[in-house]
Design goal:
By secondary structure, this protein is an all-alpha fold. Helices cover 63% and strands 3% of the residues. The chain contains 6 helices and 2 strands, in the order ααββαααα. It has a two-stranded antiparallel ribbon with strand order 1-2. Strand 1 and strand 2 (40-41) form a beta hairpin.
């Protein structure tokens, strides 16, 4: 007979709150069995599903995306068209994440350059910061503004 786990055991094993587990049950992502006393009883497969959900959440997938796109493991017969749809979804999600990474790398560069400029302020460091800010703004706006042509000479005394 397969071991079943109570909600507090699952919460402790997986580091999830009981409220989260109840919510997952309510929205139908993981629905444990219930006995006559109405207590939730989680199977080993339920625990594996919950671990996979934690991994997918870590990968920045929403609960709606998890529920809607990634339920194929419960299918009796794997449909190749469905698998292709999920693969295309994951490719799009990957492209979205890569775009965020590129954005965050630029933000890190900007913050590092600004901090370095402030620590050792010179006309050259100020100019490098202004040029980087100009390039960022062009990326944001997809056009060129004349105000940046003047630089940041007004910082000089």
């Amino acid at each position: 007979m397969e071991k079943l786990y109570l909600i507090q055991e699952v919460a402790q094993i997986l580091g999830l709150s009981k409220d989260t587990l109840r919510y997952y049950d309510r929205i139908g992502i993981v629905s444990p069995s219930r006995e006559h006393n109405r207590y939730r009883k989680y199977s080993r497969n339920d625990l594996v599903d919950l671990m996979n959900i934690q991994i997918m959440r870590y990968a920045d997938l929403s609960l709606d995306e998890i529920k809607g796109k990634l339920g194929f493991h419960k299918m009796k017969n794997i449909d190749s068209a469905y698998c292709e749809e999920v693969a295309a979804f994951l490719d799009a999600k990957n492209a979205e994440i890569r775009k965020k990474i590129t954005h965050l790398e630029k933000v890190c560069q900007l913050l590092n350059l600004a901090a370095d400029t402030l620590r050792d302020f010179t006309n050259e460091s100020d100019q490098r910061l202004a040029e980087f800010a100009h390039e960022l703004y062009k990326d944001i706006r997809q056009d060129k503004l004349e105000i940046f042509e003047e630089g940041c000479d007004y910082h000089q005394d």
